[in-house]
């Protein structure tokens, strides 16, 4: 068999900002190991800070430590040992790529049933300890190794880095949420005649506003306690309401906030035959009450979506390409921070200042990994 391993340049180590707990990130030179069959090495250009990493740093959710956090990123292949993209094409040096957050075995019963996100042997970008076999797994680093069983997609040059970086979490998760209610193809009117409520206008909620329109929804309503975020949603084409109001009766309700009050509001907003898709409930919260009789007699349903399947990554990039060309981006992205200075994005004083000005906080801050 011909070995088509591409030799990388003189790079033998990566700069990784290793998370040591709290808001402590330690710049660490990590050796780049020889690539195993199916692996590829990416030089990351930009990563974006997902809210879930803020939950990790604040202690709101558990994650291995020490580790390289970060799971949204974009970069270029600099070496590959027979790595393939989602279409089976070889990954070549210079290819600009995004990648999925999970690497699955592809063989266990969950994988074969279409639940690779819940593979029995799953590994996740930005969630592996530095002592594991996948130390360079996060995007708060100069390089990342992509593994077999991980979705990788080549992307065009005209999609800006900050937008492209969100494909591997925010955008793909939104596509999975709509898939849960039967929406398979963008620009196909799967939701014609339907009304959609979107709870929580963070990055996912904003993308969901656009996706709902592309899937043909008659009405798209966005709810959030933050007036600045509601203004963003209106600019992207939604009608809006304050989060605590429940004056709508909708066919589809998607919650991206995870806040118990918002989850209850989403469920209680369902019309007969409606479906609630819960996406944001990924950290511990108090339980909520659901009336089983109301659910059953109304043919209502509740489902959850956590992460996504590899096939959602392509439509996610298509969604982002549409948004890049047709939507206003002012207020969506904030400042860009050098990789070595990433601690400033998470430290207590910085976080308190952000909290005080939460009405004007951008949905994503960017890390320059070059």
Could you describe the 3D structure shown?
The protein is an alpha/beta fold. The chain folds into 2 domains: 13-168 and 328-368, Quinone Oxidoreductase, Chain A, domain 1 (Alpha-Beta Complex); 173-304, 3-Layer(aba) Sandwich (Rossmann fold). The protein is 23% helix and 26% strand. It has helices spanning 51-58, 109-112, 161-165, 170-179, 203-214, 227-235, 260-268, 292-297, 313-326, 348-356; strands at 13-21, 24-31, 40-48, 72-80, 96-103, 123-124, 143-146, 150-154, 195-199, 219-223, 239-241, 250-255, 270-278, 301-304, 333-338, 364-368. The strands form 3 sheets. Strands 3, 4, 5, 6, 7, 8, 15 and 16 form an 8-stranded mixed beta sheet that branches. α4 (170-179) packs across α9 (313-326). The chain is globular. Residues 204-321 form the Alcohol dehydrogenase-like C-terminal domain. Residues 37-156 form the Alcohol dehydrogenase-like N-terminal domain.
Which structural class should the secondary elements be placed in?
Answer: alpha/beta
The assigned CATH architecture of the largest domain is Alpha-Beta Complex
Rg over alpha carbons: 20 Å
Query: Which blocks of ≥5 consecutive residues have pLDDT under 50?
Result: 1-5, 349-356
What name does the CATH topology of the largest domain carry?
A: Quinone Oxidoreductase, Chain A, domain 1
Please indicate the percent range of residues in DSSP E strands (runs of 2 or more).
Answer: 25-35%
Domain Alcohol dehydrogenase-like N-terminal: 37-156
Enzyme class: oxidoreductase
Domain Alcohol dehydrogenase-like C-terminal: 204-321
Family: Belongs to the zinc-containing alcohol dehydrogenase family.
């Amino acid at each position: 068999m011909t070995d088509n391993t591409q030799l990388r340049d003189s790079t033998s180590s990566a700069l990784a900002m290793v998370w040591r707990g709290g808001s402590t990130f330690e710049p660490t030179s990590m050796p780049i190991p020889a690539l195993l069959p199916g692996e590829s090495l990416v030089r990351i250009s930009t990563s974006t800070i997902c809210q879930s990493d803020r939950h990790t740093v604040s202690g709101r959710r558990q994650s291995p430590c020490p580790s390289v956090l970060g799971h949204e990123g974009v970069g270029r292949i600099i070496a590959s040992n027979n790595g393939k993209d989602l279409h089976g094409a070889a990954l070549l040096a210079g290819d600009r790529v995004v990648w999925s957050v999970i690497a699955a075995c592809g063989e266990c019963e969950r994988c074969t049933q279409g639940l690779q996100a819940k593979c029995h042997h799953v590994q996740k970008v930005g969630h592996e300890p530095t002592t594991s076999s996948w130390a360079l797994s996060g995007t708060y680093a100069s390089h990342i190794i992509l593994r077999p069983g991980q979705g990788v997609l080549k992307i065009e040059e005209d999609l800006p880095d900050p937008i492209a970086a969100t494909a591997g979490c925010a955008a793909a998760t939104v596509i999975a949420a709509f898939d849960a209610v039967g929406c398979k193809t963008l620009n196909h009117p799967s939701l014609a005649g339907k009304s959609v409520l979107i709870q929580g206008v963070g990055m996912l909620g904003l993308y969901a506003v656009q996706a709902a329109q592309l899937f043909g929804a008659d009405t798209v309503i966005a709810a959030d306690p933050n007036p600045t975020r509601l203004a963003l949603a209106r600019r992207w084409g939604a009608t809006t309401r304050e989060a605590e109001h429940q004056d709508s009766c909708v066919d589809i309700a998607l919650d991206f906030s995870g806040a118990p009050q918002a989850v209850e509001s989403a469920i209680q907003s369902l019309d007969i035959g409606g479906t609630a898709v819960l996406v944001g409930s990924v950290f511990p919260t108090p339980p909520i009450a659901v009336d089983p009789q109301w659910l059953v007699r109304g043919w209502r349903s509740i489902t959850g979506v956590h992460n996504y399947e590899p096939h959602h990554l392509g439509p996610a990039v298509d969604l982002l390409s549409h948004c890049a060309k047709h939507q206003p981006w002012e207020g969506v992205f904030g400042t860009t921070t050098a990789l070595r200075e990433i601690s400033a994005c998470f430290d207590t004083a910085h976080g308190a200042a952000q909290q005080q000005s939460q009405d004007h906080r951008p949905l994503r801050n960017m890390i320059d990994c070059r």
